Amino acid sequence: MLYMENNNTNLAGRPRLPLEEKRKARSIKMSDQEWEKIQNQAAKKAVNVSKYIRETLLKGDS
């Protein structure tokens, strides 16, 4: 077996994000009706639910 050094030039796939851009899974509680409304709003904007929630919540925090 050939040993390869662990550096980014030998890795396949998408480049790693800088630490300040990495995202972690978070958990919130909501009703099924609230979740459905969020899903519908995200679909109208043609974005996934996570992106819709981030953009909506962070709109005023510039």
Can you offer a commentary on this structure?
By secondary structure, this protein is mainly α. The protein is 37% helix and 0% strand. The chain contains two helices and no strands. Helix 1 packs across helix 2. The mean pLDDT is 84.
The H/E string reads HH
Mean pLDDT across every amino acid position: 84
Measure the end-to-end span.
51 Å
Report helical residue fraction. 25-40%
Structural class: mainly alpha
Per DSSP, what share of the residues sits in E-state strands of 2 or more residues?
under 5%
Radius of gyration, in angstroms, nearest whole number: 18 Å
Number of strands: 0
The stretches of 5 or more residues where confidence is low (pLDDT under 50) are none
Give a short account of the largest sheet: none
Shape: elongated
Helical segment count: 2
Quick synopsis:
The protein has 62 residues and is mainly alpha-helical. It is built from two helices and no strands. The longest helix is centred in the middle third of the chain and has 13 residues, at 32-44.
SSE layout:
Elements: H1 32-44, H2 49-58
Key terms:
62 residues, mainly alpha, 37% helix
